[in-house]
Specification:
70% of the residues lie in helices and 5% in strands. By secondary structure, it is mostly helical. A hairpin with a 5-residue loop joins strand 1 and strand 2. Helix 1 packs antiparallel against helix 3. The mean pLDDT is 79.
Length: 155
C-alpha cells in the first residue's frame, strides 16, 4: 500500500513538475521575445530619427546652396544687389523664393529671430521680415565687423 501511494504521489508530482516546466519555459520565451521586440522598436525609432535628421540636414544644405547660388548670381552680374532684385523679381520671382528659403531656415532653429542678406553697402536685400527690405544697416556694428571677419550677433 505504501509503495502504491508513493508511486501515485511521484507520478502526480512528475506531471505537475512537467506542466510547471513547460509553463515557465513558455513564459520565459514570451518575455524574451517581448524584450527583443522592444529593443527592435527602439532601434527602429533611432534609425528613423537619424534618417529624419539626415533629411533635415540635406534640406538645409539644399536651401543654403540656393542662397549661395543666388548671391553668386548677384556677384557675377554688373548690377548692384538692389537693382539685381528689382530686375529679377518681376520675371523670375527670385526675391520671393529667396525670402521663402530664409524663412524656412529661420523656422528650423527657434533661437533665430530674423534672417536677412545685405548687399556690400549694408542695405537689406532679402529678409524674413519683409518690411525691413531696403533698410540701410551700414552703421550697425554687425555690418562693420562682418566686413572684416565672420560675425554672428546674439539677440
Amino acid at each position: 500500500l505504501f509503495v502504491i501511494f508513493l508511486t501515485t504521489s511521484m507520478a502526480a508530482l512528475l506531471v505537475i513538475g512537467v506542466a510547471a516546466y513547460f509553463a515557465a519555459r513558455n513564459m520565459l520565451s514570451q518575455s524574451i521575445m517581448e524584450g527583443y521586440t522592444s529593443i527592435a522598436q527602439k532601434m527602429e525609432e533611432a534609425v528613423i530619427s537619424e534618417l529624419d535628421g539626415a533629411y533635415a540636414t540635406q534640406a538645409l544644405v539644399a536651401k543654403n546652396r540656393f542662397i549661395v547660388e543666388t548671391i553668386e548670381k548677384i556677384t557675377k552680374s554688373n548690377l548692384n544687389a538692389s537693382d539685381f532684385f528689382k530686375e529679377y523679381t518681376d520675371s523670375s520671382g527670385l526675391t520671393k523664393e529667396l525670402i521663402l528659403q530664409l524663412k524656412e531656415l529661420q523656422a528650423a532653429d527657434s533661437s533665430v529671430s530674423e534672417c536677412f542678406i545685405m548687399d556690400m553697402s549694408g542695405k537689406i536685400i532679402a529678409s524674413t521680415l519683409e518690411n525691413q527690405i531696403g533698410e540701410d544697416r551700414s552703421a550697425d556694428d554687425y555690418f562693420n565687423r562682418g566686413q572684416k571677419e565672420l560675425h554672428l550677433k546674439d539677440v
